Amino acid sequence: MASRSLFGSRLAPAMRSLRTRNYSSVAPPHYPANINPHVKAEIEAIKHHAEKTTELWRRISIYGMFPILGITAYVVYGMAVDHIHHLHEHPPTFKKYDYLRIRNRPFPWGDGDHTLFWNPLVNPDPEAEE
């Protein structure tokens, strides 16, 4: 009886309508025989406009965005190389604060003292400085 009240006559039509809905955004490939010629012309104009707009954005993506992406990558790479050279010349110094490097148990990788993303170039090592 409980299943009948859950899927009873009130809920069944809603479930049926959800099952039969079609969420397609593609127009049907053919038009009905009795379609108004003005409506058909408007649909064709919309399709033509969509094709032109798609081609425009494809060209913008290929001829505009890829060169901009390449130039940006080149500039950022140069900045990263400069930063690495700066770190080699002026390595960071370790500052011992009481609230940093609290280890209740060792990490399960490496020597147990360094984090997973520890980098000797960027992160100073307190044992090396003592």
UniProtKB/TrEMBL annotation:
UniProt GO cellular component terms: mitochondrial inner membrane
Keyword Transmembrane helix among UniProt keywords: yes
Positions of transmembrane segments: 60-80
GO BP, sorted A to Z: mitochondrial electron transport, cytochrome c to oxygen
Origin organism lineage: Eukaryota, Fungi, Fungi incertae sedis, Zoopagomycota, Kickxellomycotina
This protein's record includes keyword Transit peptide: yes
Listed name of the protein: Cytochrome c oxidase subunit 13, mitochondrial
Major localisation: mitochondrion
Subcellular location(s) per record: Mitochondrion inner membrane
Species of origin: Tieghemiomyces parasiticus
